[in-house]
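Case study 2.
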Amino acid sequence: MKAIYHYLAIILLTACFAISCSDGNLLKSLDVSESMMEAHPDSALMILRKIDKRGLRSKEDKARYALLMSMALDKNYIDKTSFEVLQPAIDYYLKKDNGTERLRTLYYQGRIFQNRGDMDSALNTFTKAIAYSGQTEDALYIAKTLVSQACMYYEFLDYENYTECHLRAANIYKSLSRDYYRLDCLLNALNGAIASGNKVRADSLMAECEKFNDAERIQQTSIKSLQFCHASQFEDIDRLRALLGDLDACPVENKNLWLNIALAYDKTGNPEYAKQVLDNITGPGYDTLKYLAVAVPILEHNANYKDALATYKKFAAMCDSINALRFDHKAKSLEEKHHLEIMAAEAERKNSRIIWSCIAGIAFLVMVVGILFLLFRTNKNQKSLALEQAKNSELENKRLKEETARIALENENLQLERDKKALEAEALSHRVDILENESATLKELIETQDELPSEVMTAIKDRIQLLNTLMAKYISNKDRDVATYAEWMRQFTENAEQFMNSNRLAFKATHPRFIKYFEDHDLTIREINYVCLYAIGLKGKEVGAYMKMRSHVNMSSAIRKKLGIDKHETNLRIYVRHQLELYS
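Prediction:
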């Protein structure tokens, strides 16, 4: 018997030793994965996946494994929407006084809420994590939590708290010498300051961001985009012109940046070019709300009022949806809710005896309620059915009223559109009558006087410029619904060769230095005629269509060569209009 006991003791000791060695290897693997988590998260995840969780015996080890696995998944961009992995850490660390593990657990709990789209719970969890940040020295996770909290405030359009959280995170990253993440936070804070209209803070943050000369390409693009946003928001026209002069550093694929560029062209008085930039922004990858906000003033300044109105309606509808979502979420009360939850927890601990003493009474009340429910269930169901029918009738009546109101509003809008078109037609007709009378008067003046005073010449130039504008609109198929001057315009421009010669002679009389500039560069009469079509405001495609040339690119290239203009330097139309202003 003693020998048997001796062998049993040896077997038990061997088993205990094996278990001890196994546990030691598991803990060592946890230590290794934790040490590699920041620098090599993929390797840390691989180590954790090789661990047999059945060997984790204590709640502490299971909680540690759950937290490390959640960290590794998040750092490898594997988003989780369930608490299956993290739950052991939640059950263990949220009941302990260990500040570091509790902060990290709350952070990843908030990330899961965020992945699930539960923004209220996510913000509430991040707020709790920040409340416990004073109990830990893990500055990196405090900064990460602040950034995640800022993202939630951005979802609720709370730009002030969004800016404050990013500024606090930037200060932490500065103390950790992590310049890349610090600049990221500063850029987001600048975006929030611009959105909230805080010019003083925006100016300060812009100056600080521009000090980062060695920023990576994506951050340089963000700085460029925010420079346009800042100048547009605070109406710095000179700054916008300077930024538009250096577009080489703007990547074509960043569509939100080009939305800012289009808005900048519009604000600097070039709505036509702004429209061209806007039309080139297609496909996915840009902020739809921002696109609508930028498109409305550009369409309006291009006199496309119909599309501007339709775009503004889309913009207003989207803003209403965002505001409705914002008011549904009670973001501003979350910190107060958290404070109340802490107070309730303390009261619960103090009054636990009273709560347990009330359980019997609550159980009795539940039984009474159940009996009453069974007795009156039939009567209640009948009442519920009647109320549901009444509610459905009320909803149907409400829907009919809303439909009637919508139809009335549409009719009113149609009538306003008709009145607007009638007023525009009347105004254009009146303008043509004035121009015809003034044209007759000017002809009489020119015939009766050999030399005209300078102020008369100036008036003639202004009237000719206005006539040129009307001609350009007719040729480019604009305003052809005005019958008052349509036939006159058709006769005047029908013979293209005759009109171009007449147009050139008119410019030679009113802008001699302008015509001489092109003669000095050895342009032929046909080429000067071509240039003068740009001078009255036509675009390249419209010039080619009017001259009935299959391709006007060859003539354009020849003129650019004579003028010494590089093909990438500027648009020929813009160049000609600039010379016209210069020699006026």
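The two ends are 123 Å apart (CA to CA).
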